[in-house]
Design brief:
Blueprint lengths: L68 H10 L7 H25 L1 H24 L1
């Protein structure tokens, strides 16, 4: 035996090799395995994107924000890549940013208050820009 392989001089070395040497042996036991039944498959009402590493979809999934618009196209392309590929995650981050911009555009299109706030904001920025330019 090689001297580098002999660890008998180290106290408690290899305690996990023999169950009788484990400190918690008298009280140690395996917890009972929970018996669970598979939940019923949730019906698909919208498009569900799932990983390429797993077959099918999980029995229960979220449907609150289905993929739509440009952000949805980006998400579909992202899910063509494996989860351990950086492109997958970067494309999902980009899709989140695009989705936020799409939401702002949708708010502007539908809400008179949002349009008013944008007009006031743009006017304020233009006024600040003109004021700073005049001072120079």
């Amino acid at each position: 035996m090689n001297t580098y392989d002999d660890h008998s001089h180290i106290p408690d070395w290899g305690a996990d090799l023999d169950r009788a040497n484990r400190p918690g042996v008298p009280m140690e036991h395996m917890p009972p395995q929970a018996e669970r039944e598979q939940p019923e498959q949730q019906p698909r009402t919208v498009e569900i994107l799932h990983s390429t590493e797993r077959e099918g979809i999980t029995p229960v999934f979220g449907t609150s924000v289905p993929p739509r618009g440009l952000s949805g196209r980006i998400r579909r392309k992202a899910f063509r890549h494996s989860e351990n590929d950086m492109r997958h995650w970067m494309m999902l981050l980009m899709a989140d940013r695009v989705d936020a911009a799409e939401g702002l555009v949708e708010d502007l299109r539908q809400s008179p208050r949002a349009r008013t706030a944008v007009v006031i904001g743009v006017c304020a920025v233009a006024a600040c820009w003109a004021f700073r330019r005049a001072r120079m």
